[in-house]
Amino acid sequence: MYYVTGRQRKENSHFCQCHHKQSEAKAAKQLAARIGAAEVGTLPSSKSRRTLVEDLGAALFKAKRTEILRKIPEDLPAPTKAWREERAGKVVEGMEQRGNKHVAPVFGHRRAALITKNDLETYLADG
């Protein structure tokens, strides 16, 4: 048992009790690793295993749109600013269309945590 952002988490170490000293040492080592990862902030959340690739894509496009809009200076004349905002929307829209055309049919419905390097290599080879 350990804590992540103030919330208690329990996890089964999956080590058998038939080899008591070995399994206890391995479980303690795994617990120490989890505590260290929780303190550093690199421990994945339980929701990360349920995240779909299409959800990651939507978050990426939203972040990209925000990033592009943030780069537009505030002191621009209104027509220029409106034109830049329109162009930013078209750039992100193009990215979304390419993602929906190429990546979503292959990986969109799959859980992101279950996609392997072999899956990506096969996708790139089929090109």
Task: Give the SSE map.
Blueprint: E1 2-4, E2 7-9, H1 20-40, H2 53-70, H3 78-107, H4 117-126
Antiparallel strand pairs: 1-2
Helix pairs in contact: 2-3
3D architecture notes:
By secondary structure, the chain is mainly alpha-helical. The protein folds into 2 domains: 2-43; 47-126, no CATH class. It is 62% helix and 5% strand. The protein is built from 4 helices and 2 strands. Strand 1 (2-4) and strand 2 form a beta hairpin. Helix 2 (53-70) runs antiparallel to helix 3 (78-107). It is elongated and about 75 Å long.
**Mean of residue pLDDT?**
83
Q: State Rg.
A: 22 Å
Provide the structure class. Answer: mainly alpha
- Give, in spatial order, the strands making up the sheet with the most strands: 1-2
Count of DSSP-assigned helices: 4
Percent of residues in beta strands: under 5%
Q: Largest sheet, if any?
A: 2 strands, antiparallel
| Count of distinct strands | 2
Distance between the termini: 45 Å
| 3D shape | elongated
- Oligomerization category of the chains in this entry: single chain
Provide a short characterization of the protein structure.
By secondary structure, this protein is mostly helical.
Key traits:
2 domains; 127 residues; two-stranded antiparallel ribbon; single chain; mainly alpha
